[in-house]
Amino acid sequence: YERHMPALLQPLARPAPTPPTDAAGRPAATAEWVRLRESWSEACGQVVEVLSLCVQQHGHRIKYFALRHKVIDKVAALLRQRDKVLALSALRFLRQCIGADDFYGRYMAKNDLLGDVAKLLELHVRRDNLINSAVLELIEFIRQKNMRGLIRYFVSRHAGVFRHVTYVDTFRLLLIRHEENEAADMAARARGSDARAGGRGDG
Q1: d(CA 157, CA 54)
Q2: How many domains does the chain have?
Q3: What is the rounded CA–CA span in Å between residue 78 and residue 88?
């Protein structure tokens, strides 16, 4: 991993090619820039697909490598690209990570790496396309598995986006699940307090 994987990640370490400017200082999408941009996007997409397979097959080795080299951060940044195919590859990778190990979800929430998922939803709201479907599937998976940390993250940080998505039940049910979790946590804390108080009384 340490010998070959850093070389594999090189496309993710390079910024997207920026277009040249014309005499007025405006971006000019030349044929050469389009070629470079497509080449960069394709390379990044291929790397992300390999990384998804690594998460699926390699367990702890890719987990610690991803942490050390900020792999998740770099892939999540691809969600900001206008290339829909590349953004979709990044979404699939994040979904693969979240389903593979709770570690990834905790890391993403702690470092606010899923904010661009909410932004993607805003951009593609009510559009019947693959990105919209992938975002909805990701959130629904988190809700069904009751991943409390990620549910709390989305509700506390991005509820403003989700409250406007009323054409599916996903986010209404996510908010309900969050409220149920919070109520259960409060009840557990109350039971713990009662138990400690009872113990002191017995003493």
Answers
A1: 30
A2: 2
A3: 9
- Among candidate residues 158, 187, 192, the one with its CA nearest the CA of residue 175: 158
d(CA 23, CA 8): 38
Are 120 and 109 in a shared domain? no
Tens of each residue's pLDDT in the chain, 203 residues: 778 888 999 999 999 988 888 777 787 778 898 999 999 999 999 999 999 999 999 888 899 999 999 999 999 999 999 899 999 999 999 999 999 999 999 999 999 999 999 999 888 877 768 998 999 999 999 999 999 999 999 999 998 888 778 888 999 999 999 999 999 999 988 887 766 766 665 65
Beta partners for residue 21, in sequence order: 27
Give dist(CA 14, CA 28) in Å, integer: 21
At 142, list the tokens: 């988190």
- Dihedral over Cα of 92, 98, 101, 104: its sign: positive
Q: Do residues 6 and 82 both lie within one domain?
A: yes
Q: Decide: 113 and 72 in contact? Cβ < 8 Å.
A: yes
Q: If you search the block for the tokens 């900001």, which residue do you land on?
A: 80
79 shares a domain with 123:
no
CA 110 to CA 153: how far, in whole Å?
9
4 and 98 inside one domain: yes
